[in-house]
Fold this sequence. Notes:
By secondary structure, this protein is an all-alpha fold. It has 5 helices and no strands. It has helices at residues 2-6, 10-23, 28-38, 52-61, 68-80. Helix 2 (10-23) runs antiparallel to helix 5 and helix 3 packs across helix 4 (52-61). The radius of gyration is 14 Å and the shape is globular. The model has no long low-confidence stretch (mean pLDDT 91).
Amino acid sequence: YMERYNASLVKEAVGQYESVAQKHGMKATELALAWCNSRWFVASTIIGATSLKQLKENIAAFDKELSEECLADITAVYKKYRDPTLF
């Protein structure tokens, strides 16, 4: 299955999301968790921490508020890479 990802736009899409996170003063994981937390249709968010530091960062992400500008930046990346594995 890795061929599907290695020969796709996944790395490019992830890089774009990382850029959005940095622009708004966050790590990519914080952006992802804050986005999930901001969606009314997400009933629960699973975090994956392998250290106490990561656990603290993940929990802190739920206190982040995503600005309208940040959400617009996320949407722009999403529109460009709706399913980056298909390219």
